[in-house]
Design brief:
Helices cover 73% and strands 0% of the residues.
């Protein structure tokens, strides 16, 4: 079994990148500070000598308190994401979705050929190129 000292050293080694990020990241500190201030404002407004039931009723009905709580939660989520090094992938995911839809339309067996022709005509202008009509009388090379 590992000694307590080894466990503590292992835990500090794992936490080191998070601690360094928290010390260096100004936005992270702002998120945590803003979340704390929002939570403190809500707490001070709610704890006006009330019991638990009136307090819960006020939270359930007061839109301003709900908005402040949402802001505090959003700030904490953003801070947690920054500590974990998560990045927003919204733009990437949207691009992938639109690319998938476009490819599905272009390679659809029912309408894909017409869609590709229409797109080609719009992008490059109508083509005067010969297109094979199939099923005609024998031409050159038929015996």
């Amino acid at each position: 079994m590992a000694k307590t000292r080894d466990k503590v050293l292992d835990a500090t080694g794992t936490a080191r990148p998070y601690i360094e990020r928290a010390l260096k990241d100004e936005d992270l500190r702002d998120n945590v500070r803003n979340a704390f201030e929002q939570a403190r404002e809500v707490y001070n407004e709610l704890i006006g000598g009330r019991g638990a039931i009136p307090l819960a009723a006020r939270v359930a009905t007061d839109k301003e308190i709900q908005d402040r709580l949402r802001e505090a939660i959003d700030e904490l989520r953003e801070a947690a994401d920054r500590v974990q090094g998560k990045k927003d992938h919204g733009a990437r995911n949207t691009t992938l979705l639109l690319t998938g839809i476009a490819l599905g339309i272009l390679f659809n067996p029912v309408s894909g050929a017409q869609t590709r022709k229409w797109l080609s005509d719009k992008l490059f202008g109508p083509s005067d190129e010969f297109t094979y009509q199939g099923g005609g009388n024998g031409g050159a090379g038929s015996s």
